[in-house]
Amino acid sequence: MIPCEIRVYLPYGLTDRRLMCDGVSLESIVERLGTPVYVYSARAVREAYRAIDEAFTGYPHAIHYALKANSTLALLRVVRQLGGRADANSIGELQVALRAGFAPDDLVFTGVGKTRAELEFAVAQGVAAINVESPGELDRIAQIAADRGVAARVAVRVNPDIDAKSHPNISTGLKTNKFGVALSEARDVYRARRDVRGLRFVGVHVHIGSQITTPEPLTRAAEVLSDLALALRSDGVALEHMDLGGGLGIGYDGRPALSAADYAAAVLPALRRCGLPVVLEPGRALVAHAGALVSRVVDVKVYPDSRRFAVLDAGMTELMRPALYGSFHRICPVVPRDTPDTPWDVVGPICESSDVFARDRPLPELRVDDLVAVLDTGAYGAVMASNYNRRLLAPEVLVDAGGWSVIRRRQTLDDILALEA
Ligand code: LLP
């Protein structure tokens, strides 16, 4: 196995020159299921969960896994068995969380642009908190709840105008972003509605972005949230929690980025000033390292200027992140040849020039039919896949306790044509 870096458990490594996931051979999985296929390590999810849980030991906290990172039922059950709760971003995610066994009380419901049907569902279920994006949404919730004779548990998501210093497409805390209520208005939004029938203010919420790898923005967000909660306390608004959102980044180069302990150290001093229990909504940090997208080389070609391409049977339809954010993923041959590394362009089969996983990536020789694994794809991989080019969603496998099982079968053409006239 590749030696594990301190603090981060990496499940993929070479044993006898063959890539394994927690000791399970990726070749054996491919033999049965073909490619492309997503493989996840249950152990990696558990280790990542424990790292966060332990980092916050001694401070009251709840880990609400952000389903949007990967909501396959079997993975949700792993999180639930650890004592985790859930953050859902749509009615679909709320329903999937309930089917995975989470109780309504385990759920926070976030998301810009919630529909009336979504709000009605969340109010009817009595979720732990609806994280509210605007005064208008608060008023719609109040109406829905009052009509049912209940008070909806709500928190206002504030937009603190903090730069998360991540990719612009996944930064959400700037005042130019569509998310939340301006910090300068938030206190008034609470005060103006504190006696509204149908609303029960239970928290304050912030989420400034994803794949955050420096502590400062997280510290500032925690400070802002703590200040707001203290101000509201002095206004007589008794809250139950502060929700810091998600955002903890991972090291896509295989080295630890910001560890869970660094994260806790960055936010705990601010949280302690206020003392309210904290809700965390990690997505990526729990599941990214667990996943690998295993794919087969279907063509190899060398241009006259000696640029080398390896064309895979997986592309942006299976893994959008490189095309969408130019993001880096480690790529490992499943059985690496003993040849010197040369630069390879590793690309998908889609007729889009953004369908590229890596450019000039140093890799040993690749040949047609070789298997490669694109690593750290447990988060925002399978969930962002599409049927573009009538390609079928890849199956997903969970490796656990030395064995593996299919947790989602490969989609068939009949599955998708069943929707059509
Ligand atoms: N809470 C809220 C309100 C969110 O919007 C998100 C992610 C999370 C929690 C979880 O954030 P995490 O801990 O995973 O950073 N598709 C992009 C990431 C989009 C994240 C959107 N919101 C990617 O592949 O990098």
Report on this model:
It is a single chain. The longest helix is centred in the middle third of the chain and has 20 residues, at 215-234. This protein is elongated. The strands form 3 sheets. Strands 4, 14, 15, 16, 17, 18, 19, 20 and 21 form a 9-stranded mixed sheet that branches. Strands 5-6-7-8-9-11-12-13 form an 8-stranded parallel β-barrel, surrounded by 7 helices. The protein is α/β, with parallel strands linked by helices and 421 residues long. It has 12 helices and 21 strands. The protein has helices spanning 26-33, 42-55, 73-81, 91-99, 116-125, 135-148, 183-192, 215-234, 260-274, 284-287, 321-325, 413-417; strands spanning 12-15, 18-21, 24-25, 37-41, 61-66, 85-88, 107-109, 129-132, 152-159, 181-182, 199-205, 241-243, 278-280, 291-302, 308-312, 331-333, 342-347, 356-363, 371-375, 396-400, 403-408. The structure holds ligand LLP.
Question: How is the topology of this model organized?
Answer:
Blueprint: E1 12-15, E2 18-21, E3 24-25, H1 26-33, E4 37-41, H2 42-55, E5 61-66, H3 73-81, E6 85-88, H4 91-99, E7 107-109, H5 116-125, E8 129-132, H6 135-148, E9 152-159, E10 181-182, H7 183-192, E11 199-205, H8 215-234, E12 241-243, H9 260-274, E13 278-280, H10 284-287, E14 291-302, E15 308-312, H11 321-325, E16 331-333, E17 342-347, E18 356-363, E19 371-375, E20 396-400, E21 403-408, H12 413-417
Bound molecules: ligand LLP.
